[in-house]
Every structure is written in structure tokens, then in C-alpha cells.
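Q: I have 451 residues here and want to know how they pack in 3D. Can you give me a structure?
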Amino acid sequence: MKLTFWGATKTVTGSKYLLDVHGKKILIDCGLFQGYKELRLRNWSPLPIDPKSIDAVILTHAHIDHSGYLPLLVKNGFNGPIYCTHATRDLCTLLLPDSGHLQEKDALRANKYKYSKHKKALPLFTEQDARATFDHFIPCNFQTPLSIAGLQVTFHHAGHILGAASLEIRDDRTSILFSGDVGRPHDPVLKAPDTIPKTDYIVMESTYGDRLHEKEDPLDCLERVIKQTIDRGGSVLIPSFAVGRAQSLLYFLYQLKVGKRIPDQLPIFLDSPMAIDASQLMYKYQSELRLSQSDCQHTCHVATYARSVEESKNINFLDQPKIIISASGMATGGRVLHHLKRMLPSSKNTILFAGFQAGGSRGDLLMKGEPEVKIFGEIVPVKAKVEMISSLSAHADYEELMAWLSPLTHPPKGLFITHGEAQSATFLQSKLKVKFGWDATVPNYLDYVIL
């Protein structure tokens, strides 16, 4: 069994791992690179092998940094099955076309206003390219071993978002576990990740491998930020991942309103068609949640939905304090950019980030205190207050990651730390050595190992 690291090496994006086994090529995750230009350019470069030679793809979950390269893979000749959980399939049918649509819009805007360095800006892939992937999906059940290219594959609950899985892959000689993105054990919305099974090798995420989440109750943090902002006469804009984070935010805002901790008349808008559709999936996959049917219903009705462009624009005509949740979570694209452009120049407003910001992303620049950012080719001054609520993260921190590993009765033969910035990965590497005495490896881009 040969494992090659095609992505998520010393970065949190571009997850792709190629398994060569029994003469078959299996791609674990198929994500887009995001953030720094050097990484984003990899999306435009050919893969190390012909996509036609890949026999199957297995996804851990639907987020774009794990699934977003699929339209290109299919466009460039891949014709095999894409295995994933049922919820992951449903979410990919929302996320992938939306990503293609946004790229088409961005290219059109760049050409119209001539702020691209290229003679003609082109989308990486189109909405139609994304829809061409749908027939390749084969949804699978959790905890039910299945045979894929001579391997036994089992999807284990990972928490994080609906459908998220850790992948246990075995042949007659060895076994390997791909963590995917590990959720938090006490998340109020999603059930806890499954206990880790016995395995020979582990490919382990490290998004928060060098950090501990704040102990502050997210309800307290949200209440504080909202009240301080409306006291200034301003509004709160929350750039949010449309899948997972947006639904958690709605739940917390519902809790704040029902508890009379924020004004009941304070308008809340969910300005993301994809987040709206993803919220409706909470009913379908309630078995993955801690919430009751009633909680799901109230959560989904706490906000006014803005599906159309006209409804999105009308939000800005409401001249009173309000809360806007809009995608994308790292402020890299989508409707949130229009709200940022309008709200950043006013010191009354607050931009509240609620998740990890990849290095080089617009969200990362704002969190680092940049005095201005570029949006749609224009320089926008940053006068609004920029805050982060890290206790809302859907990623386990390093203590939670090590607790997830603790049930292992025997040390793995190899542990590879991926999906984290270099500092996060190496910090987790040292922590694992101290706690367990394990020697973990932090691979580089295109490194490979024989298992």
C-alpha cells in the first residue's frame, strides 16, 4: 500500500491523499486549495497522474477544501465512483454548483471591471461542471463495512458537520484511518465523534493542533458582541461557512432570543441560499444531531431567509441594528463580500468571525488587523471592529484530538499529521510525543510512504 500526499500538507486546504493498492488508485478526499496565491495556483496545475487512471474517490465530508476539486477531476477524465455518506452527497449537490457559480460570477466581474491580471479571467470550473459530478456519487451508510477496489471501507461518525466521517480502510495485510475533520466531543448541535478503531496507520488533521479553544460559553460571547454593537448603533456581520457553522449560529441565536438575552425584535438574516438549503437538511439527518425536531424547527425559523439577490440587497436598506449571517466563512467569495464592502468602513459595525481563517484568506488578513482589504478590485478601509469567537469552532483542539486518540490500546505503526498550518502540525507532533511517546510525521507536498 503506497500513500501519497497530494494536499493538506502544512496547510488546511486541498485535502487529497492517493492510495495505490492491489493495482488500484483510490483518492481519499478531493479538495480545493485556498488562501495563499501559491496554494491557489495548484488548483490550476495538472494532477501528478492522469485523472482517468484513478479508480475511485472516497470523501470524508462535503466542505470545499475536501470536495471542491471533484468538478475538475471529472472534467479532466475521471469516470469512477465517488463514495461518501448520504448527507455528504446531499451537501455536495449544494456546495459544488454554488462554488462553480461563484467562480463564474467572479470571472465575469473581473473581466467587466478589468481588475484581473489575465487577459481574460476564466473560472476554475463552472456550475455545469459541478453538476456533472452528481451521477458519480454512491452514498454509503455509517458503520457498515463495504468493499471498494478490494478494500474494506467503513465510515465512522466524525462530528464536524452533517455526514462528516473518519474513514477506516483495511486490506488483508494492513489498515489505515483517515481522520477527516474531527468534530468536538461536546458540540451542542452535532453528536460526538465515534471512538477511534484499532488501526495500523493514521492520517490525522491538525487544524487547531497548536491551540486550545476558549472556555467562554459561545452564548456569552455572542451576547456580549451583539449588545456592544447595537449599543453603538451598528450591525453584526458574521461571515460563516454555509454548511455546519451557519446552522450552529442559528441555534445559538435562537437560544439567546428565547432566553431574552438579546432583543426579540432584533432582525436576523441568513443571506446564503446554500446555507438555507443546508439548514433544511437538519430535519432529514436529525439522527446525527443532539437536537429534537422542535429545536430544529425553531432554529431554522429564527432568521429571515434571503434567497434572491434582490432580498440580499434589501437587507442593507434596513436602517437599524441587525445581524447578518452570510457565506463564505473565510470571506473569500460569495454574498458576504457585498456586506463587507458596505460595513467595513463604519466603526459602529462588528465583523465577527466564527471559524478558522486559512493563511492568506481575506478573513485571515482582517483578523491580523490589516487597515484595508481589496474587495472586487477596490481598496476598502477597515474601520469596523473585527472579532473572533473561537469557542464555536467545529474542529477539535489539540487536547480534544489527543483525547480522540486515547482509546487506542496499541500505538500506530505510523501517524501522519496533515490539514494544519506548519506551526499547528509540528506543535501537535511534539504534543503526541510527550503524551503518548509516538513519533509522528509531518509530510511535505507530494511526499509518499509505503505502508
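Q: Anything worth noting?
A: Residues 52 and 78 are 5 Å apart (CA to CA). The two ends are 5 Å apart (CA to CA).
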